[in-house]
Specification:
It is a single chain. By secondary structure, the protein is an all-alpha fold. It contains six helices and no strands. It has one domain. It starts with a helix and ends with a helix.
């Protein structure tokens, strides 16, 4: 499978997980423990795999591209949007079920902020980076 197509597919899957979290975060009631872990770890599984691949393999490759547009865009994105994997890991470690249940309003705020940041990164990569990367891959 083409790398760019794979990344687009992973983005779609991550956005589906984000959409599944939205109603839970909109509710004032703390979800049952099993539902909390199911949603949290479904997102974690997808996100850690995807972001690790992007941050360690995809971005460095694109930054070294002979196509200046791809290299410049990837470098800018790495600067502006990098660090999301670390932020997600910190969020995941800090928000145990017990803490989320005890501090539900704060959990909802922090999680919604993280999801907005993630959604913005995905939308920008889909719109601004991956099209250039796809063109460069076809030309290579």
């Amino acid at each position: 499978m083409d790398l760019i197509a794979k990344l687009y597919r992973e983005h779609a899957e991550i956005l589906e997980s984000v959409a599944a979290l939205r109603p839970v975060l909109a509710d004032n009631a703390v979800p049952p423990r099993a539902a909390y872990f199911e949603l949290k770890f479904a997102l974690a599984r997808q996100l850690v795999t995807h972001l690790t691949s992007e941050d360690l393999l995809v971005y460095p490759r694109l930054i070294k591209s002979e196509d200046a547009r791809v290299a410049e865009t990837a470098a800018r994105f790495a600067q502006e949007l990098g660090g999301l994997l670390g932020a997600f890991k910190d969020w995941s470690a800090q928000w145990t079920y017990e803490r989320a249940a005890a501090e539900w309003p704060a959990f909802r705020r922090e999680t919604n902020q993280l999801l907005r940041t993630l959604t913005t990164r995905i939308e920008r990569e889909n719109r601004e980076l991956y099209p250039f990367a796809g063109e460069a891959s076809k030309a290579a």
